[in-house]
From TrEMBL, chains C, D:
Required for the export of heme to the periplasm for the biogenesis of c-type cytochromes. The keyword Transmembrane helix applies. InterPro entries: Cyt_c_biogenesis_CcmB, Cyt_c_CcmB_bac. This is Heme exporter protein B. One of its GO terms (molecular function) is heme transmembrane transporter activity. It is found in: Cell inner membrane. The chain crosses the membrane at residues 21-40, 46-67, 98-120, 126-153, 160-181, 193-216.
Amino acid sequence: MQLVAENLVLERGNRKVANDVSFTLEGGSGLVLTGPNGSGKSTLLRALAGYLRPASGSVRILGIGGSDGDTGESCEVGEVCHFVGHLDGIKSHLTAAENLTFWATYLSDRADSGHSVAHRVYDALEVFALNALADIPAGYMSAGQKRRLGLARLLVAHRPLWLLDEPTVSLDTGSADILVKAINRHLSDGGMAIVATHLPLAIEPARGISLVRKEAQA
Amino acid sequence: MQLVAENLVLERGNRKVANDVSFTLEGGSGLVLTGPNGSGKSTLLRALAGYLRPASGSVRILGIGGSDGDTGESCEVGEVCHFVGHLDGIKSHLTAAENLTFWATYLSDRADSGHSVAHRVYDALEVFALNALADIPAGYMSAGQKRRLGLARLLVAHRPLWLLDEPTVSLDTGSADILVKAINRHLSDGGMAIVATHLPLAIEPARGISLVRKEAQA
Amino acid sequence: MSAFLALLKRDLMLSVRQGGALGTALGFYMLVVTLLPLGLGQDLNLLSRIAPGILWIALLLAALLSLGRVFSSDHEDGTLDVLATGRMPLEMVVGAKALAHWISTGIPLALTAPVLGLMLNLDIAVYPLLMATMLVGTPAVSFIGAVGAALTLRSYRGGLLIALLVLPLYVPTLIFGMAAVNGLLGVSGTSAAMLILAALSLTSVVLCPFAAAAALRVQMQ
Amino acid sequence: MSAFLALLKRDLMLSVRQGGALGTALGFYMLVVTLLPLGLGQDLNLLSRIAPGILWIALLLAALLSLGRVFSSDHEDGTLDVLATGRMPLEMVVGAKALAHWISTGIPLALTAPVLGLMLNLDIAVYPLLMATMLVGTPAVSFIGAVGAALTLRSYRGGLLIALLVLPLYVPTLIFGMAAVNGLLGVSGTSAAMLILAALSLTSVVLCPFAAAAALRVQMQ
Amino acid sequence: MQTLTQRLANPTRFMELSGSVLPWIAGAAAVVIAYGLYLAFYVAPPDYQQGETARIMYIHVPCAWLAMAVYAMVAMSAFGFLVFRHPLADVSAKTAVPLGAAFTFLALVTGSLWGRPTWGTYWVWDARLTSVLILFFLYLGLMALRSSIEDESLASKLTAILALVGIVMLPIIKFSVDFGNTLHQPASVLRVGGPTIDTAMLTPLLVMALGFTLMFVAMHFKAMRNEILRRRVRALQLAQVEKAQASQLAAAE
Ligand code: HEM
Ligand SMILES: Nc1ncnc2c1ncn2[C@@H]1O[C@H](COP(=O)(O)OP(=O)(O)OP(=O)(O)O)[C@@H](O)[C@H]1O
Ligand SMILES: Nc1ncnc2c1ncn2[C@@H]1O[C@H](COP(=O)(O)OP(=O)(O)OP(=O)(O)O)[C@@H](O)[C@H]1O
Ligand SMILES: [Mg+2]
Ligand SMILES: [Mg+2]
């Protein structure tokens, strides 16, 4: 399994924010994006997830599909990734368990058929130390609790690629450790992860890419 | 000048999240709130700012008003503080300069009359390295740029007390340094600051209070 | 398919949780109809004459205005981003949400119309026909409305702008709905109008998700 | 005072920036009036008879629905928290925002009414009176509406729920507005109705900010 | 080899070409309209029922036709923009909308003015008139949506989608006279089976229609040229702001 980004050029409001970014990521390894504010980390992640169409260049993911009978050719990244952005994708009127149950059902893939939805939700709550809050509406949670709930989504359905935009925001150190462990476990299971962050994170094995702020271009 | 919190008991949805918190903060010094997710940092800050009425106990600020002719008696904390929460208070349809100009006019106090609004806005943009973005609508900014713009509000109008809830979220290291410097300058000018954070911040002189998660209470 | 059902279920659940979507739309519907006699005077003949038209228009407004935040609330909390990952195409996401809107709002509104008809002194014989046209016509209302909601995803004018964009598109539905109720065209005319109404609904169910999904995609950058 | 003016100015600026609040409210107003004849048939006598009532009710709806996010957009991005610090009491904040709404929506709607009256075949002699009642009555609409907007600050149903809460409160305004226009009460009756309308507006300008500010405070925890 | 449309679609080529033909089209429009007005007022006979007021027709009908034709053009441009992503198609769609709205407005006003003497009222709510009014609202909706979004390229795409959705209204307007009772004249020129109108009136009508169409083309070209220039100026300004920013940021770091 391999993620290949070739000569990506990304634009925001007619301004280039990434010029000619290329990288390859192998299954089982991570990539850490760093760079000052406004250097294009979020933009790159959104482009990888397929929300933003690159001005030129391409992103492909190769060798997926053994599990669900695809031909093993390249496929859309959006279909095989988890995306956790600045916003959590959590409904404040639903309880923690309801939120996760919805995502578990909505996102589940053939690879998940081994475990029941309830089981996966329970496990994810457990990992992120949220079981005590399972039946509390998300609107009543603190910033960090809500963030953890957003991250628990990563574990309720299997996706080979994780795209995480500043995932440790609002997390206390204990929770940040939990997250790093979850990422490392995902990598050691052969998955891939791309993480934008301002803090050093102990993700292994991982390469780093440091973005710089782009100079003006006509 | 002195901030006095006495026997504060705070409740959220009928659950106590802070029990009997008392402290005194002198002008010229800071207070750093730490504690795991859900331990009540945001709740305490909102209570200090006056948004949340404490179940019992009181918060008073003493000795303000030399500058604007008050009697020097205690007064409402809400009237003399800057509050920067998880949300930035920034309108995405207005440019950076327009956002700050509004806050400068709205928040300005007699103490600010020495400097024109435009001047204060310019200075604040300068300090947070935002001048290049002055005429760009806030909706086009990256997470960190927007956060910096929210923080620049601290400098457009004078307030003796700063209440900051995880202010370094989304900031790169350079910007976090700028913020810490601004806080330290405010303290050395005799101001007070209370900062909730998960990261160690070099705020001086500052005491720390570490909150713990409350056990469930009937 | 299970993703589609999960989304449908969640939207229905939210519409119950979030302060009774249903109750609100119904309440609005009733209030508009109640205000009318205040504005028009209580001439019962006049009222019963304009009743079917008023009921249809109030239904359009109530349905439309409850559509306002169908997509934008999901956009603002990041849910839409996640819904767009995975194998279910955005067209199906739109379909599920519009369907949920029809079930949670369109059907109840149609079923309430007779009660309000009573208040407007509407001839009882007209009730079955009125309800039938509304049931057949409201899918078009929900699905066309979804296009409007998608187009205004990021606009801060929400509700009213949608109305401006979408009300013109409701005109055919309104015209044929009224034609069917008024029976001006005789029995065969009525059934023809019903057929056209059904065709309008079917067409919008099929085509609108594509337009709405296209609109969402360009705004998710 | 400068804080009040700054807030007023910002709100007016936003209402222009954010996609022409004005155009949208006006467009909605016109569309509702246009849909009516489609639903009611084209009998001009009928239309001119119900015109003043229809114009008033459509105005209420257009004004009301544009109020929907007056406070909630400020709440969602944290602005409201900041507005509540500083020396200006929350009551004044509410006042500034309601005033901005009246200027940016109430007045233009009142001024458009005659154009729509033309299309509903309304007697030209009635126009000045109609506009006058609307200008005098709309402050009540904006300020009472602000209470509704404040009460629904955190509700996800926004627009419709406000309508439900506030429309009943508009009944006196509507009744006296209609009484003044219809001149049913003779000339002296008309001016009495106008006076009452003015009193209603004044009272709401004075009292509503307190209710709205109280509603905001309990929700800002 | 490029096709003709491809060559025309190049903005620079378009500027050159439109620059050179614009005066000719504008001139032709003026001449044809002048001739049409002469025919309408001095040559064509007064209507045997309506007398002189019937001459409003020579303005009313071309405006009404253009109101619909321009919408079709907007929709086609929108399609071209969405499918081929060509900026010129967007420029065309954007600039045609206000013009179309203006023609629709004129059709409404002239129709109302004509209605007063013939039907005894400025306005009736029959299917034809209402549907033209609805078309006017569609135009307004396109303008409102575009102005409600700050990001220009986003606004273009969204309005294009709306324009395509709105095209379903055109047949309804065109055939509105055929269903339901209406006061308005059924189509007598653009109809299956050929025109049923007298040639003495048909000729001036067609001449006026041609003149109005030429006028629309001229105004549209002019508006497109303005829009292209505006976009170029904006791009230059942006680039300058960018440069200033970049140097400032470099200095700050
Ligand atoms: C505001 C009011 C009116 C509107 C919106 C309106 C609209 C239109 C439209 C859209 C057409 C083009 C029809 C087509 O090509 O199928 C048209 C044509 C025409 N209108 Fe009107 N009209 C109005 C009032 C009137 C009045 C008062 C009269 C005269 C009694 C009139 C006489 C005609 C005639 C003679 C044609 C040409 C029909 C033909 O030969 O195809 N219109 N009008
Ligand atoms: N609106 C609310 N209603 C009910 N309970 C709430 C509400 N907001 C927060 N809580 C609860 O109050 C407790 C304290 O929350 P608070 O937001 O103060 O924590 P915090 O220390 O700021 O945490 P974090 O580091 O995650 O931001 C949490 O257990 C939370 O679940
Ligand atoms: N919607 C938008 N329209 C126009 N420009 C944008 C938009 N979003 C972001 N930008 C610009 O694109 C550049 C890159 O933004 P991006 O959000 O990718 O940065 P980032 O690396 O994630 O920064 P941060 O660390 O602050 O989150 C910034 O200069 C920003 O101003
Ligand atoms: Mg970012
Ligand atoms: Mg917190």
